[in-house]
Amino acid sequence: MNPDTLDRITATITEFRRLSGIGRSRIYEMLDAAEIESVHIGSRRLILIDSYRRLIEHLRQAATIRAQQ
Prior knowledge:
Helices cover 61% and strands 17% of the residues. A hairpin with a 2-residue loop joins strand 2 and strand 3. It has one domain: Arc Repressor Mutant, subunit A, CATH 1.10.10. The chain is an alpha+beta fold. It contains four helices and three strands. Strands 1-3-2 form a three-stranded antiparallel β-sheet. 10% of the residues are buried.
């Protein structure tokens, strides 16, 4: 992973697909379900990396709770 990637706050759909390993269709499903956030700047749609980090943390916490039950 490129060190510059860690400091990024947004990524295009294509960059986010490479970064996350999630397919394009699933990314759009996640956007439609408000699981991750994006902004439009001109005609570009940029994924907010922080929203992805929050999703991962939420999933991690949910898995921990399930494991404790």
